[in-house]
Design a protein that fits this description.
eight-stranded parallel beta barrel, nine-stranded mixed sheet, 17% strand, UDP-N-acetylmuramoyl-L-alanine:D-glutamate ligase, elongated, 655 residues, TIM Barrel, alpha/beta, 2 domains
Length: 655
Amino acid sequence: MDHAIWREVLGPKGLSALMDRPLDVICLGRAAVDLYGLQFGGRLEDMQSFAKYLGGSSGNLAAGLGRLGSRTSMLTRVGNEHMGRFVREALATEGVDVSHVVTDPKRLTGLVILGISDRNTFPHIFYRENCADLGIETTDFDRDYIASSRALAITGTHLSTEQSYAVVCQAIDYAERSGTKVILDVDYRPVLWGLTAPGSGDERYIPSDIVTTRIQSIISRCDLLIGTEEEIQIAGGHSDTLKSLRAIRSVSKATIVTKRGPIGCVIFEHAIPASLDDGIAVAGVQIEVLNTLGAGDAFLSGFLHAWLNDEDWATCARYGNACGALVVSRHGCTPAMPTKPELEDYLARSASVPRPDKDARIALLHRASTRRSARSNLCVLAFDHRRQLEEMIVSTEPVAGRIAAFKMLVCDAVQKVAADVAPGTELGIIVDDRYGESVLARMTAMKWWIGRPVEIPGSRPVEFDPRSGMGLPLLEWPASHVVKCLIFYHPGDDLELRLQQERRVRQLHADCVALGRDLLLEVIASSTGLACDEHTVANIQRRFYNLGVYPAWWKLEPQTHAGWQEISQVIEQYDPLCNGVLLLGLDAPEKLLRESFAIAAPFAVCKGFAVGRSIFGDAARQWFAGELDDNAAIELIAGNYARMIAYWRESAAAG
C-alpha cells in the first residue's frame, strides 16, 4: 500500500488507527552532548564552568516526549566513548528506547558548547566534524522497526550530507509502506550546512538554493512540517513567509506548523490564506525568557504528544506553546523539558505564572517527577559511621587506614549478597567519603543507589562537614549520589536550637535544589531526651514541608501502625511524588527490626530499609579486636545483610 492510499485510509490525522503499535514516535537525527556555560551575562570566552546535558534536536525531542509519557525510540549513532555512553544512558533514563542507538566504531559523539550572554544572545559552537550521528547507515534499521511506530520524526540537519540523506529517504520509504506518519522538523542551522563560519553557530538564516532543494525533495512525502518563520522560508525558498508557505503547499499536502516565538504559532491544514493570522492561530504564553535554546524542541514534544492523542490542532498548539514557555525559563534543553504532571499544572494556571522558574509548585513537580533515584524494595546497608568505628579502635595503629580497610570489607559483603539477590530487590549503600572514598569510587562505577552523609557525626544543632555552606562541596559529587543529612530534632526542642537546625536544613535543601541533587533527610527524635508518640514524626514532617523543605527521601525510626498511617497521610498531602521512606535501624537486634519491618512494609510509602550497625556491628567489633579475619568478617556481614533483606521481602509480600 503506497503512502497516498494510506492517507486515504487513515485520514488527515488517523493516528488512533495505529494505537496498537508498540511505539508512538521514532526520532531520527541529532543526538549529542550539550556543554552549557554556568555563568550568565558574559561572553562565552569568559565562562569558567559548564554543565553537561543530553542534546541534539532529535535527542531533546525524544526525551521531551518520553517525559510526557509517549513511547519513544531514538534512531541515531553515538561514538564508542564516554560521551556516547552518556547519551545512550541519558536517553534510557528518560524512558526512550535505545535499541537503535548504534555505536559507531570510528566517529566521535557530537558536542555543542553554549552560553547565555543575555536574554537575546546565546553563543554556541557545534563540534560535529564527521560526528557519529551523521554516520548513520541504512543497515542500522529495517522496515519492521519503522512499522513498529505510529510516527517517524526527522530532523532537517540529517538532509545535509549524502549519507544521512540516503538514510532519511530509506526511512521514509519504509514509513510509506507501513502507514507510519512522517514529521519533518526543519531544524535549519546554516553552520551545519557549511554556509557560515564554524564559530557562528547562533546564525539562524542564510538563503540557500541547495538547502531548499534538498528539503523540498522530501516534503511531498511528509504528513506534518514544523519550523520557525525563518525555517519555513528556507523550506519554501522565499524570504517572505507567505510566499514560502504557498511554495510548500504547491508540492506538499502536509499540515504546516509555523512557530512564531512568544506570539505563539499558526497552523495551516489546507490552502494558505491571505494572511498568516488567518490560519489556526494560537497565542503563545507570555513569560520572562532566560534561554531560548531548546524552545523549538520543547514545542514539538508538547505538540506531538497532543497530536498522538488525537487532540485538535488548537490543543496541540497549546501544549506546544506551554512546553516551549517552560523551557525558555530554564537552563539547558533536555533537563528543562517538562513532565506530564508539571505541564498539566502549568496549563491549568499559566496566565497567573509569568515566571515558571520562580513558581514553587512547578519547580517541585519538575524535581519530583524527574528524580533519578525512585526505587522500591530498596535494601540499603548504611556504613557511613565514623565516630562509632573510631571508638572501637583502642590500639595505637593508624585509625583511618583500619576503618577504610573495614569499609572495603563491608563493600565486599554487599557485592557478595548482590550476586544472589532475588529479582525485584534493589540494593544500595550509605557511606562517607572520609573513610569510604575507595568504596564510593568502586560502587559509583557499578551504578548502585548511593547515599553520602554531610553532617558531622553527633552534632546538635546539625553541622556540616566540611563546612556549613554545602553548595560548592556538593558540586564535586557525582550527580547520582543522594545527599544524606541526619538531624536529632524534636518539635519540643528549645526554640533557638530548633530554629538553628531548621535554618541549616533549609540551606542544605536549597543547595540540593540548585545543584540537582536528591536529599535524604534522616530524622531521629527519640534520642533528644523528649517524649515521642505516634504523632511526633508526622509533625516534624509537616514542619519541614511548611518551611519549603521537600526531601526526595525520608529516613525514619520504626513507628506504630498509627504512626505510619499519619506519616503516609502527610506525604500524600504535601508531596505525593516523594520517593518514600527508608526505615532506619538504630543498632536494634534482628528480632525488633523484623517486627518493625512487619509494621512498616504494608504502607506503600515505605520503600525499604537503611540499616547499619545491626548488620555490621558485631563483625566490626570482632575484626578490630583481631578475633575475625577478613573472609570471616565478610561472611558474617553478608549473612546478616541477606537475612535482613529476606525479612523485608517477607514483610513486603505479606503486606
